Amino acid sequence: MIYNRQYETMSRDDLAQLQIERLQTMLNRVYRNVAFYKHALDTQRVEIENIRTLDDLKRLPFTTKDDLRASYPYDMFALPLRDVVRIHASSGTTGRPIVVGYSKNDILHWSELVARQLVAAGLTEHDVAQIAFTYSLFTGGLGYHFGAEKLGASVIPASSHDNLNDQLLIMKDFKTSALLCAPSTALALCHLFKTTGIHPEQLSLRCAILGSEPWSERVRAEIEETFRITAYDNYGLTEIIGPGVSGECQQRNGLHINEDHFIVEVISPTTLQPVKMGEEGELVFTTITKEAFPLIRYRTGDRACLMDGCCECGRTFVRMSRVHGRTDDMIIMHGAKFFPSQVYDAIVGEEGITSHCKIVLDHQGDFDTLEVCVAIAANHGYIDEIKTLEQLRNRLAQRIENSLGVSAKVTFMEDGLLAAEVKGKKQPMVVDKRAA
Ligand code: DLL
């Protein structure tokens, strides 16, 4: 099944024509309404009327996460707040999150794009969709909610909360047929499910739509085997729209990008030049229909490649590979996303520790763990008091959990040793043992 056959199966020539028309309209809009883009386009001497083909896209300036942070909260909005009906923000960041807005039309488009992806995974109005993404500033909960309602599914806004028993209870009693959540949540549910003694046939579950963080084929296999279901990958990011950027169809051989709304490029993060079809690089998106928060050539920091050739499902939209990693040092664990500097920001100012910090990412079974190594300052009066050190350890762990949303084990190291390891740097050093 295809939700919007007219667009999702349009010829590549017609699509290119539609993209360029939409791009020109968008460029005119941002030039008039977003000071940042007026300045960027003027500085690069871009005449919008000279952007006539998709090849001209490479003459446009990039937009980065730093640009968006600097525009906090509303400087990149292309509409006044009275025309903005929804505001979300990037998840898990301290300090200045990236704030994004949606007009009424943006919400209508977003709902359709999510509905398309649900249909691509085989959902219909007969499905009971349990949404176990957080309903919050994070786009996962509400994004899927509107999309699933648009499709006509029976939506259970379970949200994500610590009590996985409740999720399983809902899944069984409410006859959930589609589970929508982060892969780490699905995996945790798997483990809990195995302890309940419930047989998968006692559930109505038949598929899971998972996204928002990287997950391996091994994790996919475990989720599928445990619940006897099919699991689909969905990709998206707050800055571009949230979920609804791309998703797997039933072929599960790449994620179709909703190209009538987003133009995709893959560039080399070093030369910033487009790479060849099939080569891995950084995903860059230009939104061509967004009214409230349009972005030109947004550098996502996500590594992937585009896949050549037609898909058997009949959709003509290009497919991207699954995300292979990041071009920057952003850490993703259990749906939380943060930069190493934010770990340090969370604990800086706590009396008794030095400015050196090492972050160790590892895994216990299928679950990622975070260890933060710090050193006690030599002049800390109570360095030898175990009780005081324990309290300090707990305070640090609490501060990290409060600001990043993940629990951390805090380890004390001797300062000379830690300073030598981090080579005296102020930025935390990261040791990632997860892939090992
Ligand atoms: O994670 C939006 C979303 C919600 C997508 C629900 C899919 C499902 P952010 O919190 O802004 O938005 O995080 C975006 O998460 O740049 C990737 O690094 C990562 N990411 C998202 N989906 C995937 C995926 C939402 N399927 C950032 N595989 C992105 C790997 C993913 N990484």
From TrEMBL:
Keywords: Ligase, Nucleotide-binding, Phosphopantetheine, Phosphoprotein. Residues 335-434 form the AMP-dependent ligase C-terminal domain. Pathway: Aromatic compound metabolism; phenylacetate degradation. Its EC number is 6.2.1.30. The keyword Ligase applies. GO terms for biological process: phenylacetate catabolic process. GO terms for molecular function: nucleotide binding; phenylacetate-CoA ligase activity. It catalyses: 2-phenylacetate + ATP + CoA = phenylacetyl-CoA + AMP + diphosphate. SUPFAM superfamilies: Acetyl-CoA synthetase-like (SSF56801). Residues 18-285 form the AMP-dependent synthetase/ligase domain. Catalyzes the activation of phenylacetic acid (PA) to phenylacetyl-CoA (PA-CoA). Monomer. Belongs to the phenylacetyl-CoA ligase family. This is Phenylacetate-coenzyme A ligase. It comes from Candidatus Moduliflexus flocculans. The lineage of its organism: Bacteria, Candidatus Moduliflexota, Candidatus Moduliflexia, Candidatus Moduliflexales, Candidatus Moduliflexaceae.
